[in-house]
Amino acid sequence: MIGAGIKRGTAELAVLSVLQEGPLHGYELARRIEQQTNGALRFTLAALYPMLYRMEQQRWIRGSWETSANGRKRRCYRLTPAGKKKLTPLRREWEELFGALQRLAKAAHA
Amino acid sequence: MPDWQELVRRRLSGLALDASEKEEVHAELAAHLEESYGMLCRNGLPEKEAAERTMEQVSDWRDLQAKILIARRGEFMRKRAQQLWIPGFLTFILSTFFLMTLPKILGAHPRTVESVAGTILFDVPWLAALPFIGALGAYLSSRAGAARAIVLLASVFPVLALAAALMLMFPIAMIVDPIIGNHVDFRNVATELLKVGTSWFFVPGAALLTGGLVVSLFFGLRSSQQTRWLDSEAKDA
Questions:
Q1: Which of the four CATH numbers 1.10.10.10, 2.60.120.10, 3.30.420.40, 1.20.1250.20 does domain A4-109 have?
Q2: Which of B32, B70, B230 sits opposite A45 (nearest CB)?
Q3: What is the pLDDT of residues A50-83, one digit of tens each?
Q4: The overall pTM is greater than 0.80
Q5: Which of A3, A59, B132, B231 is the most exposed place for a label (fewest CB within 10 A)?
Q6: What is the pLDDT of residues B166-186, one digit of tens each?
Q7: What are the φ and ψ backbone dihedral angles of B161, each rounded to 5 degrees?
């Protein structure tokens, strides 16, 4: 079973990575993550917003209200310099973890 | 189409946040549900089924409410403890410790100063130690990322705690004294307040604040330099 820490780390990495491409509001962010991971990562509203608010408190992302072209007000999130700084080591940690797991899986098959 | 704003407002009515912050959360979540519902409808789902599927995103609204509260307030409380309460109580403990031990160690007696309010006592070794204690409180608070007002509050915390105790003691004494038959002279109370305030609040407060201000100015300069550096990094990225 995947632990809460790993789940949280994955989710944070996904959010930071997608926001690196540009600012997005919550719904679009969840949709983009689902598309880019071919449905492997899905965020419901209940999972997404507590995490976004926590990441905002940690100042990795910043939310601000914006009015879209169709006049709807949406809260858009963008990556902060602190978020950018967090993304690099986080990505490296995950690459190392998955690299290690892949090596382990290969060794088990051999 | 369901009134998502009203639905979220009803389900998260117990969200213990400021009115404006609460309204912001309601609006944001309602917008998300509306988008989900709209997308499901555009994908050909009947309205009723789309609404049900949309609502499936939240299985437990109470749990969501608690999680949002922890996310928005939990971090705030943790930071407040690191930025104010821990440095504040540390300065309070240190100042009390030095007040009790320094005169004994140095064998110094409190100095008396005559004023219009009468004789005011000053514990000079203790007062000399206070700027350093205030600076320590301010340093710990600054290191935890506190704003300047919180940094200064952490540095003068010992006198604030003392002032709060005095605020409680004087009214209680004024109620209790007549009950036990002591005459209360308001002129004496005012004079006593002035004396106690000067020797235990204003002068020690100024000493603590001096240390706090020095550290606060130093950290202020450093953080503005860091911000400039981060901004230039962000522009380069």
A1: 1.10.10.10
A2: B32
A3: 999 999 988 899 999 998 777 888 999 999 999 9
A4: no
A5: A3
A6: 888 878 887 888 788 777 777
A7: -65, -40
